[in-house]
Amino acid sequence: MASSSDLENPNTIASLPYSYAPLPDREQPTADEPTVVLHPKKTAIFLVCAFLSVAFLVTLMAGNGHVVIKNLTTNVAPSTVETPTKTTPMSRGVDKGVSEKSFRAFLGADNSYPWNSNMLGWQRPAFHFRPEKNWMNDPNGPVFYKGWYHLFYQYHPDAPVWGKIVWGHAVSKDLVNWQHLPIAMETDQWYDEQGVWTGSVTILPDGQLVVLYTGSTNESVQVQNLAYPADPSDPLLIKWVKYPGNPVLVPPPGIDLKDFRDPTTAWKTPEGKWRITIGSKVNKTGISLVYDTEDFKTFELLDGVLHAVPGTGMWECVDFYPISKQDENGLDTSVDGPGVKHIVKASMDDDRNDYYAIGTYDAYKGKWKPDNPALDVGIGLRYDYGIYYASKTFYDQNKQRRVLWSWIKETDAEASDISKGWASLMGVPRTILLDKKTQTNIIQWPVEEINSLRTNVTVFKNLELEAGSLVPLNLPAASQLDIVAEFELDERTVLRLNGGEVAYECAKNGGAGTRGALGPFGFSVLAHEGLIEHTPVYFYVAKGVDGNLKTFFCADQSRSSTATDVDKSIYGNIVPVLKGEKLSMRILVDHSIVESFAQEGRTCITSRVYPTKAIYNNAQLFLFNNATAATVTASVSVWQMKSAKI
Amino acid sequence: MKFSSPHPIFFLILVLEQTLIFSSMADKQFIINTCKSTPSFKLCLNILLSNPKSQNADLTGLALIGVAAVKAKGVNIIQHVANLKKSQPELKPALDHCEDVYHAVVDADVPSANEALRGGMVKFAEDGMADAAVEAKSCERSFGEHGVKSPITGLNYDMNDVANVVRAIIRMLL
């Protein structure tokens, strides 16, 4: 299920985020004016009482409001939710070898496959983390400890759907190959009986670890609990102990009992205390509460909040961390100073996307302000423009980098998840740095260890793709790939083109089948040879009125599968491209998950793709230039990716 | 309390009676307001008012009533499909698929949604109801894919519509 809005407001009722093909037309019930009809007996009593005691009624009504019998005129929403029919723009210019039909969404095609075990089996990724079976969501407590990378995660052991959640656990030496360990924490206390929910690890100065996590109590109240390793000398941290005095935090006054979760890693205050932040909301304003503590057992709630943004709804999985303004390494969460900016990130419950903002932290007041209020938390930049939620970073002291984990859910039907026996993945962990060139966004990049899976490279240098060309790349296989490419538009066409209003949006402009003078161009991954199924990942360049180019980076699932019970949204966003930069992209293809990065990680898109035909030996990779005017020169390296041990 | 005349008692009874009527009208107004923001006002009223618990329910309670309605419809369809397998065995491939997808609704989506609503993890309840609509469409389609006419079109469309209404109610909790 995907939200197709980029920087726009979260969904309204009228635009539910699914973009599944609609059922065939049928008679629409007419919109009625609803009437309020009281039971006749009650009407009689009402009239009698009204007649007898008008004075009393007046006093009562003052408290009870405006309840009267009348025909209510309302705007009744249409009674079926249908996806709007797409308008297909006229294609201009040369049409060589790329049929627009193959790029256009094929609405109404009732030729979906019933899923067989072959198709479902193919969907299992080779180098993305997941438990052996059933359901996973948020990453929890990621940390590097005594030589091992630890990942905990929200785990439902009983079914491939969310339910009573425990902490799953796995360890790795390299963030790529994993060893599954026993469940770290179960729902065995009254204060986490309904779920051992998300939490974070803090490493104390003496090297000890503590965990703060949210428990859903036996009465479904959200509280924060303290836990620590039973044996700190065990590098695998198999057994955990819950502090007997739990919970250490309960919802404060004014905060709903179910709006208080996901405590962060703690950082040091100028007074030498520890500080954490916990997301919540007040009406529709998303907020982050701040607590100080010296021992992780008693906490002091600070006045006010770290930050708040009206209209954004509940802030889940808040993350708060410093980034260096000039260095190329990550920073420990407690670092502060003049060379440092701070990121506030939150997962917006309303629209299921992770947003971040760069700003300035006031350690004395415990408050943070965004550098650019127009790009504030929840309304500005997203970590990823596809499926990416509940993400969390940690400072990896082993390699001095800040690493980002994220939950990637399924976007297929639950029935398929039950058949295949699992649901959800983690994205490939990414390093996070401030983009030193733009200064206004971060860059994310798959951890370097993932390159250890690269093998068997195929290189294409300076391929000239004329307008309207489609080039199959001859590869031994195409389900597990690491693609790195650079593109250049031909200068002549760019210069002689007249600029105009650029109103392009990845989600709304019809995907890779919509042709412009300067785009789209890029790759079709998980493509069937007839392009009956394919997933274009591409740049769309447009020239503005001022003569400057705007570049969009999109991933188009609208033709990704002939199945009709999978999400077929188009994701993406504008990507900043500075003068003199070539256009570059990297794509990790791993069966049913595709992670795409533009301009070294300025704009990232994670997609879930469920082809029925473009699988196993029938999956191919194409290069295409669907622009009408420009020639594109591409240089490409494609590695086959080995499978990781997961 | 001692009254010198029956009038205060009379008024007291009137007050109680009117409070009852007004509060039940107020509850109904709450249901009406809730249903106004769903894709199908009438269907929403139908679902909620046919369950007596809706009288005193808060928004979470209304959502749970909605999920219960989805479950009831799912169970009903599964039973229907089982009967059809006997009476119309030529439809078996599509019916098998429908059985699978409606079990996903009843055995996975519904319990997950209930747990999510009780715990305040609303988004998972929304996902469950969104999926119920997808499964209903998937069942309906499978008849066409197998070149036969669906005998349960009404039931499938009904499930799709109900699931979308319940999803809309759940979104109001976010």
Question: Quick summary of this structure?
Answer:
The complex is a heterodimer of chains A (646) and B (174). In chain A, 7% of the residues lie in helices and 39% in strands.
Question: What are the salient characteristics of this protein?
Answer:
heterodimer; A: 646 residues; mainly beta; 6-stranded antiparallel sheet; 6 helices; B: 174 residues; mainly alpha; Butyryl-CoA Dehydrogenase, subunit A, domain 3; 0% strand; glycosidase (chain A); beta-fructofuranosidase activity (chain A); Fructan_Metab_Enzymes (chain A)
Q: How are the elements arranged and paired?
A:
The complex is a heterodimer of chains A (646) and B (174).
Chain A: H1 40-52, H2 54-64, H3 100-103, H4 117-122, E1 134-145, E2 148-156, E3 166-172, E4 178-185, E5 195-203, E6 209-216, E7 222-229, E8 240-242, E9 267-268, E10 274-282, E11 285-293, E12 299-301, E13 307-309, E14 315-324, E15 340-348, E16 353-362, E17 367-370, E18 381-382, E19 389-396, E20 401-408, H5 414-420, E21 422-423, E22 425-426, E23 430-434, E24 442-446, E25 454-465, E26 469-473, E27 480-489, H6 491-496, E28 518-527, E29 535-543, E30 549-556, E31 570-574, E32 583-590, E33 593-598, E34 603-608, E35 620-625, E36 632-641
Parallel strand pairs in A: 1-21
Antiparallel strand pairs in A: 1-2, 2-3, 3-4, 5-6, 6-7, 7-8, 9-10, 10-11, 11-12, 11-13, 14-15, 15-16, 16-17, 16-18, 19-20, 20-22, 20-23, 23-24, 25-36, 26-35, 27-32, 27-36, 28-29, 28-35, 29-30, 30-31, 32-33, 33-34
Chain B: H1 7-36, H2 41-49, H3 59-87, H4 92-119, H5 122-145, H6 153-171
